[in-house]
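Renewal narrative, Specific Aim 1. Our central claim is that a sequence can be written position by position from structural information alone. The example that follows is taken directly from our test logs and has not been curated for this report. It begins with the structure tokens describing the chain, in the order in which they were read.
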């Protein structure tokens, strides 16, 4: 049994959904758990719905929902020749339920409200694709991930209860293979012990695929994407990128840690624990090899990988009392940074100063400067980039640092990191 995951781009319109059916027909005879995301940009739209609801902006709320209705109805019209009444009713009642929320009080817990609403993108998408598949001869059963993936009640970022989820998958999902070849479910969503819907964090559908695979001891997971596999760099920033044919779980975790965004970082660990291989393949060229992520580290060093983070700010703190950077002020610095919810990408210290690099967009710079004002002089430098090279050599370093000024660098045996700015 295999687990497949189709993301938002792979079901973004009716042609894309038809393509999913084509891919699945290549796996006739296999038992599949298929995890699907919300269609296209639905999740972003639903996030706007939540905000309109919170602000009690009636016009915007109904306008956004109407856009979503039109989008999904168009798609239905293109997928089904005749009106598929059960499916239309199902989708209709989901939208009705959403619209009724306008007259209900908005919970004090924003994240709770968010999850009840944003999760619907996956529910709608899975109903549509599953119905299309069954109309086209597949033996498919729609299944509600909200009865299978158990989390705590950390809304928007549910923490998985692995043993409960495993029990639910084994007792409530797997037996359905007796009546179907494809068990069709949603990514990104789960439920609390009380039965409220949770989500697993943006882009969490990959993680759902990992959870289902772990809990069902699947033979493999395949994530179908609009790229041929994992590339050694983002084509947005680099020419001549190459596909990584095979890398280890360990390497994939490293790459994700440094900011490579092909796979949701939480996906890998459960698969590594059970040595379940993960394929990343193109939904446009489904017969091509893609990338396989598995246990062996043999091929990790063959191709250098580049990870770029733009819009970085480098802040350096110097104690006002001229003291050295030692354990006492380090612990104070970290306390203040954690108070400011700063997410550090790189840090380094000298005798008298301590430097950190942060994403500008995720950082409240003035809050940090305020917190440190009492004891530290702070200097900062914006508009920088952080480039990480895995399995570097001098040539790769020369390549990335051409016409750049290096402000800070760190190297270990496998990894070199550079904070740079353009020389103008
Ligand atoms: N639909 C959700 C999102 O866009 C989950 C996912 O696509 O993985 O974040
Ligand atoms: Mg998505």
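The sequence written for that structure reads:
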């Amino acid at each position: 049994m295999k687990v497949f995951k189709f993301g938002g781009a792979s079901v973004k319109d009716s042609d894309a959904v038809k393509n999913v059916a084509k891919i699945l027909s290549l796996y006739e005879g296999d038992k599949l758990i298929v995890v699907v995301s919300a269609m296209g940009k639905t999740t972003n739209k639903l996030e706007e719905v939540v905000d309109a609801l919170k602000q009690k902006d009636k016009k915007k709320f109904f306008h956004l929902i109407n856009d979503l209705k039109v989008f999904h109805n168009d798609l239905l019209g293109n997928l089904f020749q005749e009106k598929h009444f059960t499916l239309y009713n199902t989708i209709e009642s989901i939208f009705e339920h959403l619209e009724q929320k306008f007259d209900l009080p908005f919970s004090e817990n924003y994240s709770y409200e968010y999850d009840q609403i944003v999760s619907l993108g996956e529910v709608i998408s899975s109903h549509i694709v599953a119905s299309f598949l069954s109309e086209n001869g597949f033996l498919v059963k729609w299944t509600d991930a909200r009865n299978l993936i158990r989390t705590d009640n950390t809304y928007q970022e549910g923490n998985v209860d692995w043993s409960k989820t495993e029990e639910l998958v084994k007792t409530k999902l797997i037996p359905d293979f007796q009546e179907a070849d494809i068990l069709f479910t949603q990514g990104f969503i789960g439920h609390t012990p009380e039965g409220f819907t949770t989500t697993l964090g943006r882009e969490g559908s990959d993680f759902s695929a990992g959870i289902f695979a772990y809990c069902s001891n699947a033979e493999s997971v395949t994530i179908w994407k609009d790229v041929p596999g994992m590339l050694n760099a983002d084509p947005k920033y680099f020419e001549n990128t190459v596909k990584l044919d095979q890398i280890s779980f360990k390497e994939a975790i490293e790459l994700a840690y440094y900011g490579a965004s092909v796979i949701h970082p939480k996906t890998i660990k459960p698969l590594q624990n059970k040595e379940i291989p993960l394929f990343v393949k193109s939904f446009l060229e489904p017969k091509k090899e893609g990338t396989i992520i598995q246990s062996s580290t043999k091929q990790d060093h063959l191709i250098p990988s580049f990870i770029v983070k733009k819009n970085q700010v480098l802040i350096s703190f110097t104690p006002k009392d001229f003291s050295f950077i030692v354990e006492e002020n380090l612990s104070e610095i970290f306390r203040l940074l954690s108070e400011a919810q700063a997410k550090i990408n790189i840090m380094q210290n000298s005798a008298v100063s301590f430097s950190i690099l942060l994403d500008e967009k995720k950082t409240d710079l003035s809050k940090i400067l305020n917190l440190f004002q009492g004891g530290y002089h702070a200097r900062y430098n914006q508009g920088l980039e952080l480039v990480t090279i895995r399995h570097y050599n001098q040539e790769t370093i020369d390549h990335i640092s051409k016409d750049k000024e290096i402000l800070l660098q760190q190297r270990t045996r496998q990894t070199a990191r550079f904070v740079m700015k353009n020389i103008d």
